[in-house]
Amino acid sequence: MTVAVIPIPGLPMIRPGDDLGTLLADAIDTARVGLKPQDAVVVCQKVVSKAEGAVVNLDDVEPSAFAHQLSARTEAGKDPRAYEVVLREAARIVRMDRGHVIAETRHGWVCANAGVDESNGLGAGTLTLLPVDADASATRLRGALVDRFGVDVAVVITDTFGRPWREGLVEVAIGCAGMDPLLDLRGRPDLHGKVLHHTVVALADEVAAAAGLVMEKDSGVAAAIVRGVRYTPGPGGAAARLVRSPEFDLFR
Questions:
Q1: pLDDT tens-digit map of 192-228
Q2: How many CB atoms lie within 10 A of CB 95?
Q3: What is the DSSP track for 52-68?
Q4: Tens of pLDDT, residues 230-240
């Protein structure tokens, strides 16, 4: 199997209310890369959030006493209003240390600052939040692409996460439509005939990470095509399946 990762340049700076599906399709046309059946179109969360208006102006935020306490614990004195937004977006605080906040979002994602981002936003003094429902966002984008190009594709929406006990960041899937995000290898034999009992691959995360190779933060490339991946077509609402329940029993 050969996999190609094709950047899609040309997306304009996205503003709230923009028709991202049309703009994305236009960029694919302009780049003359086209779409093929079974392509996975990967879009970064930031442009999805901007288009959907998932942004906050710090001038509209009144920080709580707790947000001021968190700000005081950081060497750089991070704006307490930014901490207030993080606290509002968090369903649960997992860990706090020296002003760093790891939180679980209402979507079930565990990440830094509950997914609240200060980089590459609409401008100074604005923060970008995670989409309200990234799976629904992926479904809408997929619909726009299928209508324009007439081929069956998948859409994956990505964000940059850290990983427990690993240095560095990587792109992961927070929204997915048109593909099963999990590749279940249980019951298959390995090279030596040993039957696999626990191997379930997070295929949508692998697609997201591959796209991240051409979607660097300073490149202006907010979307890519990952071509050649063998996936099982699936409905919308798929990335939610990547969230493991806190009650999950690994040894059952």
A1: 888 788 888 899 999 999 999 999 877 789 999 999 9
A2: 10
A3: HT-EEEGGG----HHHH
A4: 999 976 668 88
Q: Which helix (H) or strand (E) holds 29?
A: helix 20-31
DSSP 176-234: EESS-SEEE-TT-B-TTSPBPSS-EEEHHHHHHHHHHTT--TTT---EEEEES------
Secondary structure (DSSP) of 92-138? EEEEEETTEEEEEETTS-EEEGGG-B-SS-SSTTEEEPPPS-HHHHH
Of the candidates 128, 102, 129, 99, which has an alpha carbon nearest to the alpha carbon of residue 113? 102
Residue 160 phi/psi, 5-degree rounding, is -95, 120
How far apart (Å, rounded) are the C-alpha atoms in residues 173 and 130?
12
Q: Which is it for the CA torsion 66, 69, 73, 77, positive or negative? A: positive
Which are the contacts of 35, defined by CB distance < 8 A and separation ≥ 6?
A: 28, 41, 145, 149, 151, 153, 225
Give the pLDDT confidence of 80-91 residue by residue, as tens digits. Answer: 999 999 999 999
Q: Write the single-letter amino acid at 233.
A: P
What is the C-alpha to C-alpha distance for residues 240 and 246, in angstroms, rounded to an integer?
A: 14
How far is 232 from 242, CA to CA, in rounded Å? 15
CB environment 100-122: b (16+ within 10 A), e (fewer)? ebbbbbebbbbbbbbbbbbeebb
Query: Computed from CA positions of residues 22, 120, 100, 69, in that sequence, does the dihedral angle turn out positive or negative?
Result: negative
pTM comes to: 0.91
Give dist(CA 45, CA 11) in Å, integer: 14
Of the chain, the end-to-end C-alpha distance in Å amounts to: 34
